C-alpha cells in the first residue's frame, strides 16, 4: 500500500474539489443508518438492494473523478487497490477464524466477561483488531448465550474491535500505515501504554456496572439457568497457524498483490481443510463478510471527495495542539474509515513539520520518512503523531462504519440470533453517552 496523501496521489490543485460531490457519501451514511428503521417495505427493499445502492453511488463518484478531475483515474485505481487490500485481510481473517471453534464452559458472570474482554484487548495487538474480533466474538456470545444483549455486542466492539488495538502496527490499518510511513515498530508503545490502560479500564468499568446490574436482574427473573457444556473444547487448531500467516503477510512487499494473494491462499486452505462440523458449530456463512464487502466498496469510493476536501482545506480549519488533532482525526474516523483519515491528518501534520526541514530536502514521497523522523525527534511534533494515531484508533468505535470489524461483529451477532442496536441506537444509547465522555477525558488528560 503506497502511503501518500490524497494530493500526492492525484495532483489535484486546491479548489478543484467541489463540496457537493460529498453528497453521495452522506446519502450512503443516511441510508445505512435509516433504512433498518424504516417501514417493512422499505426495509425489505434495502435488505435486497443495499449492495446495488452502494455500488451505484460509488460508481457515480468514481465516474466523475475519472472523467472530470486531473489524474482522477489514478485516484480511483489507488482507492480500489486500498479496498482490495482491506477486503482481502477482512475476508481471509473471517474465513480462517470461522474455522476455529471454542466450546466454553458455564454461564458467564460479569467478572468472566470482564476478564474475557480485557484479554481480547491484549489479543487485538497480537493478531489485529480484525483477527481478534472474528476469533473471539463467537465464544463471547456463547459464554453469554442465556442473556446475550446489545450491551455485550457494543462493548465488544468498543474494546476488542477498536480501542484495544493501539500498541503495535499489527493491531490495525492506522498503525500499520504509520509503520510504513516511518514510525518504528515499537516507538508508539511507551508513548500510549498508560493512556491505553486508563481508557480500557474506564470502558471495562462502565461495562461491568451495566452487566452486573443486568445479571442481577436476570438472575431474579430467570432463576433456572440453561445448563451449559461442562468442558472446554477447542477445534480447528491448524487455523491458528493460518492466522499467523495472514498477520505476517501484512509486512510483505506491496508488489504484484503479494500480500493479498498469501492471505487469500490461507483462506482457501482453511475453507478446504476445516472439517464441516466446525463450520456448522460456528453457524458459519458468508453473509456478514458479503455485507461488509458491498457496503465498504461504496464507502471507499464515495468518501474520496470528503478526503480530498479535507486534504485541500484541512490546514484552514485551525488547531495546532495535540488535542485538536486527536479530536479532528477521531471525529472523522467515526464516519470515515479510520485508515485513510489517519493518513490525511498525518499529512497535515507533516506539512507543518516540513517547514523546518533543511532547504533542498526532497519533496512529497521521498521526504515522508525524513519528515516523520524529524517529527519524532521534536517532542511537540511527536505528540501530534501520537494524537492522530490515538484519535483514529479510539474513535473508530463511535459508529458501525468507523472500522471494518465493527460491521462484521454486528452481522455475526445478528446471524447468531442476538439482538443488536441499530445504527442510530448504537450512537445515541452507547457511543455518545458512554464512550464519548471516556474518550474526551482520555484526550484531555493525556494529550
Describe this structure in words.
The chain has one domain (6-446). 70% of the residues lie in helices and 1% in strands. The protein has 19 helices and 2 strands. It has helices at 6-10, 23-34, 40-68, 72-97, 110-143, 150-163, 173-180, 189-221, 238-249, 258-273, 276-281, 287-302, 304-313, 322-333, 338-353, 365-377, 379-394, 404-415, 423-446, and strands spanning 101-103, 233-235. Strands 1-2 form a two-stranded antiparallel ribbon. Helix 16 crosses helix 17 (379-394). The longest helix is centred in the first third of the chain and has 34 residues, at 110-143. It starts with 5 loop residues before the first helix and ends with a helix.
Task: Give the arrangement of secondary structure elements.
Blueprint: H1 6-10, H2 23-34, H3 40-68, H4 72-97, E1 101-103, H5 110-143, H6 150-163, H7 173-180, H8 189-221, E2 233-235, H9 238-249, H10 258-273, H11 276-281, H12 287-302, H13 304-313, H14 322-333, H15 338-353, H16 365-377, H17 379-394, H18 404-415, H19 423-446
Antiparallel strand pairs: 1-2
Parts with pLDDT < 50 across at least 5 consecutive residues? 1-15, 359-367
Count of folded domains: 1
Helix content: over 70%
Number of helices: 19
Strand content: under 5%
* Count of distinct strands: 2
Entry summary:
The protein is mainly α and 447 residues long. It has helices spanning 6-10, 23-34, 40-68, 72-97, 110-143, 150-163, 173-180, 189-221, 238-249, 258-273, 276-281, 287-302, 304-313, 322-333, 338-353, 365-377, 379-394, 404-415, 423-446, and strands at residues 101-103, 233-235. A two-stranded antiparallel ribbon has the order 1-2.
Amino acid at each position: 500500500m503506497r502511503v501518500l496523501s490524497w494530493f500526492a496521489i492525484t495532483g489535484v490543485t486546491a479548489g478543484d474539489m467541489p463540496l457537493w460531490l460529498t453528497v453521495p457519501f452522506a446519502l450512503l451514511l443516511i441510508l445505512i443508518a435509516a433504512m433498518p428503521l424504516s417501514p417493512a417495505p422499505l426495509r425489505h427493499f434495502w435488505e435486497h438492494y443495499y449492495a446495488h445502492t452502494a455500488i451505484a453511488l460509488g460508481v457515480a463518484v468514481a465516474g466523475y473523478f475519472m472523467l472530470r478531475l486531473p489524474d482522477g483515474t489514478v485516484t480511483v485505481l489507488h482507492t480500489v487497490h486500498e479496498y482490495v487490500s482491506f477486503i482481502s485481510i477482512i475476508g481471509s481473517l473471517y474465513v480462517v477464524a470461522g474455522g476455529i471453534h471454542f466450546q466454553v464452559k458455564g454461564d458467564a458472570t460479569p467478572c468472566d466477561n470482564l476478564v474475557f474482554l480485557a484479554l481480547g484487548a491484549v489479543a487485538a495487538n497480537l493478531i489485529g483488531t480484525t483477527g481478534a474480533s472474528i476469533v473471539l466474538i463467537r465464544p463471547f456470545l456463547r459464554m453469554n448465550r442465556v442473556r446475550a444483549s446489545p450491551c455485550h455486542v457494543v462493548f465488544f466492539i468498543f474494546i476488542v474491535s477498536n480501542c484495544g488495538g493501539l500498541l503495535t502496527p499489527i493491531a490495525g490499518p492506522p498503525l500499520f500505515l504509520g509503520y510504513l510511513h516511518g514510525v518504528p515498530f515499537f516507538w508508539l508503545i511507551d508513548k500510549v501504554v498508560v493512556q491505553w490502560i486508563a481508557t480500557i479500564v474506564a470502558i471495562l468499568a462502565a461495562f461491568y456496572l451495566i452487566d452486573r446490574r443486568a445479571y442481577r436482574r436476570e438472575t431474579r427473573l430467570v432463576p433456572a439457568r440453561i445448563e451449559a457444556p461442562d468442558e472446554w473444547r477447542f477445534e480447528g487448531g491448524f487455523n491458528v497457524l493460518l492466522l499467523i500467516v495472514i498477520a505476517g503477510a501484512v509486512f510483505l512487499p506491496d508488489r504484484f498483490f503479494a500480500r493479498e494473494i498469501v492471505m487469500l491462499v490461507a483462506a482457501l486452505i482453511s475453507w478446504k481443510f476445516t472439517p464441516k462440523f466446525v463450520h456448522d458449530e460456528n453457524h458459519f456463512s458468508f453473509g456478514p463478510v458479503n455485507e461488509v464487502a458491498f457496503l465498504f466498496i461504496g464507502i471507499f469510493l464515495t468518501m474520496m471527495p470528503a478526503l480530498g476536501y479535507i486534504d485541500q482545506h484541512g490546514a484552514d480549519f485551525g488547531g495546532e495542539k495535540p488535542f485538536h488533532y486527536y479530536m479532528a482525526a477521531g471525529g472523522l474516523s467515526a464516519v470515515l474509515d479510520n485508515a485513510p483519515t489517519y493518513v490525511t491528518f498525518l499529512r497535515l501534520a507533516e506539512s507543518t513539520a516540513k517547514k523546518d526541514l533543511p532547504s533542498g530536502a526532497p519533496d512529497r514521497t521521498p521526504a515522508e520518512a525524513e519528515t516523520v523522523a524529524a517529527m519524532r525527534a521534536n517532542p511537540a511534533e511527536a505528540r501530534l503523531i501520537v494524537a492522530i494515531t490515538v484519535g483514529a484508533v479510539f474513535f473508530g468505535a463511535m459508529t458501525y462504519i468507523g472500522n471494518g470489524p465493527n460491521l462484521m461483529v454486528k452481522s455475526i451477532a445478528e446471524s447468531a440470533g442476538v439482538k443488536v442496536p441499530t445504527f442510530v441506537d448504537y450512537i445515541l444509547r452507547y457511543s455518545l453517552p458512554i464512550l464519548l465522555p471516556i474518550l474526551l477525558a482520555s484526550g484531555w488528560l493525556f494529550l
